[in-house]
Design brief:
single chain, alpha/beta, Rossmann fold, 2 domains, six-stranded parallel β-sheet
Length: about 375
């Protein structure tokens, strides 16, 4: 059978999907691909814990777990997999491979008091070299990875393989992940409603919750001085994988009964209901390679307030930066107070409809198909 005839016959690819860290944004992404794709997937996962050990040893587990990798048209996996290890173990049985980078260890900020373990940065590099193609979840993320690579490699005392930068760059592309929100944006027009401020990020240091709550406390004090009895209520969503940050403990006491939800929602229906209930979505993150939580909040009708850094300026249309992108903590406070006083919640969800999985999946399906076509012709 000629290659073109063969590809037409195998319109639906058989894809081996390995996710060593099946939780959070990785799970969100994985479930979306499989639910909406026109291709056939076999999914193998490990739980979302001990991420360092996943990067070190997941390849050994999947090497034995998956008996016939050669039966697949394509291997699709994430940056939590040491692909170079897996390809070495499987040898010629390993299918052509694509790695999706949700994050990378070259630019990820470290918690206070923690030193960089260089092994994980080199695992990212060798995984990228071992893959046939690389996908990143934003242009910001791709550029950050490429720009940080030379400085990381130069930490080596000698024989510095700077050639890897161009090799990795040449096989890298960007595809935004899709989102699962399927509803219509909630109405925010009730002038008697107490505004609801949303946090729907991970409860971890890189999202800077202490800054978020500090801004809320300042806004609360200013508006109460102006005679507003209850300036706003709060919805606190998101996963907490490690120790509870002190900022959340303090906020629970400070805001007390004004917190409408405190903690992770296991039920998606409840989660999206809280997004629709909320009016304003704020991020104070210092690490965000895409921002699924922010996009879904916008799609549910929230007005975003996002820092002028990371992936956010890329996601928000430049014509809307003035209203929704802030340049400093004081600028965030000013914009927040203005929204709370006017109770005017501009909705921009129409700009993000294209990122819902039902609209976004074709980008992935076409990429997979064209990749297999390229390597078989």
């Amino acid at each position: 059978m000629c290659p073109d005839c063969m590809l037409a016959f195998m319109d639906k690819l058989n894809i081996l999907f390995i996710e060593p860290f099946y939780g959070g944004s990785h799970k969100n992404f994985t479930d979306g691909i499989i639910e909406y794709s026109s291709h056939n997937f076999d999914l193998y996962t490990l739980p979302a814990r001990y991420w360092k050990w996943r990067m070190r040893g997941a390849a050994l587990y999947f090497y034995k777990k998956i008996e016939k990798p050669e039966n697949y048209d394509l291997l699709f996996t994430s940056d939590m997999m040491s692909l170079s290890d897996l390809k070495m173990l499987w040898g010629s049985k390993c299918p052509p491979s694509i790695v999706y980078f949700h994050e990378n260890q070259l630019s990820y900020p470290l918690p206070e008091g923690e030193k960089m373990d260089y092994q994980f940065g080199f695992t990212d590099i060798t995984t990228a070299l071992a893959a046939d193609r690389l996908l990143f979840n934003s242009n910001f993320h791709l550029n950050s990875f490429i720009q940080n690579m030379p400085g990381f490699i130069k930490k080596m005392p000698e024989f510095k393989p700077l050639w890897v930068v161009d090799v990795i760059k040449d096989k890298s592309s960007v595809l935004y992940p899709g989102t699962h929100y399927k509803g219509a944006a909630a109405s925010k027009t009730d002038s008697n409603q107490i505004p609801v401020i949303l946090w729907n990020h991970r409860w971890e240091f890189d999202k800077k919750p202490e800054i978020f709550f500090n801004i809320l406390k300042k806004a609360d004090e200013i508006l109460k001085d102006d005679g507003v009895e209850t300036p706003f209520n709060i919805v606190l969503l998101g996963e907490n994988f490690q120790k509870m940050p002190k900022a959340f403990i303090d906020a629970k006491e400070y805001f007390k009964e004004r917190i409408l939800q405190y903690g992770y929602c296991k039920n998606n229906k409840d989660y999206y209901s809280f997004l629709e209930l909320s009016d304003i979505s704020i991020s104070t993150a210092i690490q965000e390679n895409f921002g699924i939580s922010v996009v879904e909040a916008i799609q549910a009708g929230c007005s975003p307030l996002l820092p002028n850094r990371l992936s956010y300026p890329e996601l928000i249309p430049s014509s809307l930066h003035k209203d929704f992108i802030y340049n400093s903590d004081s600028d965030l406070l000013k914009k927040l107070i203005n929204i709370l006083k006017t109770k005017n919640y501009p909705k921009i969800e129409s700009h993000f409809d294209k990122l819902k999985w039902k609209n976004n999946i074709s980008c992935f399906d076409e990429f997979f198909f064209n990749f297999v076509k390229e390597i078989t012709t």
